[in-house]
Amino acid sequence: MATIQQIQEFVAMAHRVGQSGLTVCSSGNLSVRLDNDEVMISGTGSWVPDLTPDKVSVCRLSTGEVLNGIKPSMESVFHMGVMRERPEVGCVLHFQSPYATAVACMKKRPADFNFTAECPIHVGREIPMIPYFRPGSPELASHVIEQMKHHDSVMLLKHGQVVCGKDFSQALERAMFFEMACRIAVINGDNVDPLTAEEIGDLDTYILGKTTK
After folding, report:
1. Which SUPFAM superfamilies match (predicted)?
2. Which residues pair with 33 in a beta bridge?
């Protein structure tokens, strides 16, 4: 079972999400994988920015069984589903930041979000757009799980966003750069000039070169 220290660390992570402006009141949810087939998930109806230890649900990852009597977020199905499909994922964050959610509600959205190097490097050069399904529905969960088998970030139309990472820091970084890209899209409108395929390819060469040295 998760220790008191692990739960306190999870609460601190949730507060950082709120301080970063990624969630408001009860919007969004957070999960972190533990080593012993367990996962901590913000509880149903909880406010991520003000999360308290008594609102942290601990579940068995392989089965979804609640281990501490605290009901997890209604989106816990896709949190645990993504982690089951991708053993390297240690954190899943569902958020509703201002600019990214504004883009999620647009009738006409940008074709891509690669306005600066941070998006293709950290968020993903392609961000799947998931059609609107009722929050907490099996249909939404199945679409998120399917798309995140091969992507680290997705947009939920008329809803919000989901990112994952090897740990909390990587997931938070993705969410912040996702929001930055959407802020650029909203502020500039049609007056945007995304990176070209060649420019993104050059980034790939640079990053791969850096990581192999």
Report:
1. AraD/HMP-PK domain-like (SSF53639)
2. 39
User: If you count them, how many residues does the chain have?
Assistant: 213
Q: How far apart are CA 85 and CA 153, in angstroms?
A: 15
pTM of the predicted model as reported, rounded to 2 decimal places: 0.94
What is the C-alpha to C-alpha distance for residues 2 and 61, in angstroms, rounded to an integer?
A: 13
Helix (H, G, I), strand (E, B) or coil at 38: strand
User: Which residue intervals of 121-196 are DSSP H helices?
Assistant: 138-147, 168-188
Could you tell me the end-to-end alpha-carbon distance of the chain, in angstroms, rounded to an integer?
40
Q: How far is CA 100 from CA 2, 50, 106, 112, in A?
A: 33, 22, 10, 13
Amino acid of residue 39: V
- Domain 4-211, architecture per CATH: 3-Layer(aba) Sandwich (3.40)
- H/E element holding 40? strand 38-42
